[in-house]
Design goal:
Length: 266
């Protein structure tokens, strides 16, 4: 198995705010056409595709807003945190560490630098607890990985986030053995996927990407001639929601990861 990290251009594509979250209102077009079966490599997103992630951020943000209740209502504090994250994405990228730094900056701003050392300490604690959350595989994940692995298909992870945090999650998940390659990407644009596939020495038409985000996991791969399998998650960042698959060729949406194997049985 090979680990690598792309240090590519980062853009403010998404932030976190419980007020901004939803439950999967992306416009999608499902297709009943058969999908090819002879993929050389299948890529998986990690967070909220293989294991639980976003609910932990929601829980941490809830505690953060409660901690700062003396400085405003939950909605206003949440919006301030969201604004800070958007401003910081180009500096910190995605992941828990950047989220923790954004919480620190937010509390200092809204308290006019008057926040107590105890409050700062509590925010650090929230951040560390977020980094140490258990890795809970989504139902059916290991069964699918095991079956694909038995069929001799090379599997990779292509995910955004902090390198050390994602390495830690994968080690905790106990599914590392299934993957030929792990790619921690600073962004998931068409150019990023093209570089990844060039590194893997594979043409897009032999690659299938599976993930919960149309914007990051599916549409860029479709646009370069690859295949995309969308598995919506029950909660999604607002910036990842508003995406539309204009041309459903090479695209399929399924309701649960356990349905992946049905593609190979058609």
């Amino acid at each position: 198995m090979f680990w690598s990290i792309f240090c590519l251009e980062k853009k403010p594509l998404r932030g976190r705010s419980s007020r901004m979250r939803g439950t999967g209102s992306s416009k999608t077009i499902s297709t009943g056409t058969s999908m090819k079966k002879d993929f050389r490599i299948i890529g998986f997103d990690a967070d909220d595709t293989l294991w639980v992630n976003e609910p932990y951020y929601q829980e941490t943000e809830r505690h953060f807003c409660e901690l700062l209740s003396g400085y405003g209502n939950v909605e206003d504090i949440s919006q301030e945190l969201f604004k800070t994250e958007i401003q910081n994405l180009e500096l910190y990228g995605f992941g828990a560490k950047g989220f923790m730094l954004s919480m620190m900056e937010t509390v200092l701003r809204i308290s006019h630098q008057q926040a107590s050392l105890s409050t700062i300490d509590n925010i650090i604690r929230l951040g560390k607890e977020l980094l140490d959350k258990p890795v809970v595989l989504l139902e059916g994940v290991e069964d699918v990985l095991d079956e694909l692995h038995k069929r001799g298909i090379k599997l990779i992870i292509a995910t955004k986030g902090d390198l050390l945090d994602q390495q830690r999650k994968l080690a905790k998940s106990k599914i590392e053995r299934y993957f030929h390659h792990i790619e921690i990407m600073s962004d998931k644009k068409e150019s990023d996927y093209l570089k990844l596939l060039a590194h893997l020495d594979i043409k897009p038409e032999h690659f299938l990407m599976i993930g919960n985000s149309l914007k990051s996991d599916i549409i860029p791969v479709l646009n370069i001639g690859g295949y995309g399998l969308h598995i919506p998650y029950h909660t999604t960042w607002q910036h990842e929601k508003n995406a539309t698959v204009e041309n459903p060729i090479n695209y399929r949406e399924i309701e649960h990861i356990s349905k992946v194997m049905e593609i190979f049985e058609e």
